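Section handout 9: paired folding examples.
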Amino acid sequence: MARNVEFNEEEAIQKATDVFWEKGYHGASLRDLTDAMQINSSSLYNTIGDKHQLFVKCLKYYIQNKREFLQNQSERADSPLAAIINFIEAASETIIKDANGCLAVKTAFEVSPKDDRIQSILKADNDFTRNYLSSLVKQAINDGQMAATEDPDLLADFIVASYTGWYELHVLYANSKQIRNLAQLLIRQISS
C-alpha cells in the first residue's frame, strides 16, 4: 500500500515557482520541480496534478504576491502620483536586481502564445495592473497632480508597455544605468 506523503503545499508551490522562474516552463524538468519541492512525483500527481497544473498554481501564486506588493505600495504612498512613481521605480529595481526577471513577462513569451489558459491568467493580471495604474492616474488628476487632459487608461498602458520592454533591454545589455534612466524618463513624462 502506498503511503501518503504530507507536505506544506504553499511552501512547495513557492519552491516550484522559484524553479519555473529560473528555468522557465519548458526548461524546468519534473525532477527539478520535485527535488525543489522535496516530494516525489507520485505525491505531486496525487495532490497537485501534472506539471501544467503545478505551473498554473505557481503562476497564480506569483501574481497574488505581486498584487499584494502593489496594494502595500499604494497604502504607503503619500499621494496617487507618488504611488505611480514608486511603482515605476520598483519595477526598474526588480528588473535590475532580479536575475530571473518577471515570471509573468517570461511566461507571456514562452508559454502564453500556445496556451489559452495561461494567456487568460496573464491577461487578467495585466488587466489588474492596468486598472490599478489607471485608478491612480484618475486620483492624481482629481488631486491636481496630473493634467486633466491625460487619458488614464492610455497612460496606464504606456507605463505597462514601458517597463515590460525594459526587461528585454536588461536581458540583452544588463545595463542597470540604462534601466534607471528609462525609469526616470518615464517619471518625468508622466509628472510634467
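Moving on to protein 2 of 2.
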Amino acid sequence: MKKLTKSGHKLDSIDSALIVALHQNARTSIRALGRQVGLSAPGCSERLKRLEVAGIIVGFSVELGAEALGYVLQALVRVKPLTGKFQEVEQLLTNMSECVVCYKITGEDSFVCHLYTESVGHLDLTLQKITPLADTNTSIIKTVDKKLPNF
C-alpha cells in the first residue's frame, strides 16, 4: 500500500527510490538519478519538482565531517531548566555554537541537544555555561548509524 502524505500526494516506488537515492547522495545529478529510478532526466526533474511542491522534499544539504573540523566528541544533553529560567536556557542553547541540533520536547526535560566539542574538557566548559540555569544529563555518542525510513 502506498503511503499518503499530508498534501495528498501518494508516494509510489519511484518517489521512494528518488528519496532514498537523494538521502544517500544529495549531489547526485538529475541524469544519474533518472537512470537509477528508470526515468528520463526531464521526467526525473519534474518528479522532484512535484515532491518539493508537495512539501516532501524541503531542501538539500551538505554533511560536514565534524572530526575533520576538529570536533572529535559528540554528546546528547537532556536539559531541564530551573524554575523561571526556561526562556534564558532556550536563548543560551540557540546561541551556543557547540549545539548543532536542539529539540524542544515534552516530558521531564525541556530540551535535548546534540553538541559537537573538541574534547572532554571543551564539553565540560560547554556544560558549565548551562548548569547555572538548568539540570543536565549528558551521554557521549560513540557511533552514529543513519537509518532511512521505510517507504
